[in-house]
Amino acid sequence: MKNFKFLFALAIILFTSMSLLPNNASASSWSEWQTVTGDCQVRVWTDYSVYTSNATSVDVQAESRNCPQLDYYMDVWGTDSTGYEFMIRSIDQVTGYFSYLTPVKKLYLDDLNHSTQARVRVLLTGSVPNTAVWSDEIMIYR
């Protein structure tokens, strides 16, 4: 009985302490499929929707269906209080090409010094007309 009371008290303490911890991250998400041309569609994945001040990068991946090989540039665009979108130049863009799924790419946040609501843009070029597809909105805290 003494062991049961001890384990019960320990469980309550652990449960209480875990419920008081801040939730610093939110789940990853895929954007909706976005039409590039004809049947070619692309969607964008980010590893979180909220990035704390401790975050070092936004991990991004793009997936296509019914598309030829696509060249791409990935970068981050912020939104100001009026809704104006602007490219965040302190986050270097990454480039590459893919036919189905890009490797996970890292957009480093080291030089970003202000919090912003943002989206990742994947600019597709090459065998399709230049077309931008976008991630869901993310929040980056600094």
Which second-level CATH architecture applies? Sandwich
Q: Give the H and E element order.
A: HEEEEEEEEEEEE
Structural class: mainly beta
| Strand coverage percent | over 45%
Task: Let me know the number of strands.
Answer: 12
Task: Round the mean pLDDT to the nearest integer and report it.
Answer: 88
Cα end-to-end separation: 50 Å
Q: Which segments are poorly predicted (pLDDT under 50) over 5 or more consecutive residues?
A: 16-24
Shape: globular
How do the strands and helices of this protein lay out in sequence?
Elements: H1 2-20, E1 29-30, E2 34-37, E3 40-46, E4 50-51, E5 57-65, E6 70-79, E7 85-87, E8 94-98, E9 105-108, E10 116-126, E11 131-134, E12 138-140
Parallel strand pairs: 4-12
Antiparallel strand pairs: 1-3, 2-3, 3-5, 5-9, 6-7, 6-8, 6-10, 10-11, 10-12
